[in-house]
Design goal:
By secondary structure, the chain is α+β, with helices and mostly antiparallel strands. The protein has seven helices and four strands. It is globular.
Length: about 200
């Protein structure tokens, strides 16, 4: 049913997104700034969250769970708002996170995201720029977040060492309560592992 409160909530969030980027602009590097040679603990954690968010948003968009995808992006934006106050230096990772946020929101908020994209210093449209994809975070970490699926449907996430082999990934997934629930003792016909990204159990 129609509810004015939902429109007000969406309007408040659009204003929050605008203020977040406009107020952070003075601390950001330019769009062509080279990568830093070292990352702080906070920057590494933020890079990992950006990657996890991209995975979750892609899966929810694929299943047309638009509200869940938006919820993931809103959580990321609030993290960026907090981190922008905490991270010192040139705030390269903050820019990366904000640009990721705009790329993901662009199909939903095209005019707002286009204007903010140009305010960030880009000369071409956000819709002409390469989309930021899963695993795009430049931070090298010892662990990765892997999405777990059963018959192509998302059932959870797990954190494992980078480049874990097939057996390690499957053994970790097989112990997850969500996997036990949805397989119910059945023997998988196939277990597909995309290294450092996805495990899909085919029943």
């Amino acid at each position: 049913s129609w509810c004015d409160g939902r429109i007000e909530g969406a309007w408040r969030y659009c204003n929050f997104l605008w203020r977040l980027i406009i107020h952070t602009l003075p601390r950001l590097t330019g769009p062509t700034q080279s990568l830093p040679t070292a990352w702080s603990k906070e920057e590494r954690a933020l890079g990992e969250q950006i990657d996890r968010s991209l995975i979750a948003v892609a899966e929810n968009f694929e299943r047309l769970n638009i509200h869940k995808a938006i919820a993931v992006l809103r959580r990321l934006s609030h993290t960026l708002a907090n981190q922008s106050l905490a991270i010192s230096g040139d705030a390269w990772m903050i820019r990366f996170g904000l640009e990721t946020l705009l790329h993901q929101f662009a199909p939903i908020l095209p005019h707002l995201c286009e204007e903010l994209w140009l305010r960030l210093g880009h000369l071409s449209s956000i819709f002409d720029s390469p989309r930021i994809k899963m695993g795009a975070s430049p931070v090298d970490t010892d662990s990765v977040t892997i999405a777990v699926q059963v018959n192509g449907k998302h059932r959870g996430l797990m954190c494992l060492p980078h480049d874990a082999d097939h057996d390690t990934v499957w053994n970790a997934a097989a112990a997850l309560p969500a996997i036990l629930k949805h397989t119910r003792g059945l023997t998988p016909r196939r277990v597909i592992v995309v290294p450092n990204r996805i495990l899909n159990v085919v029943l």
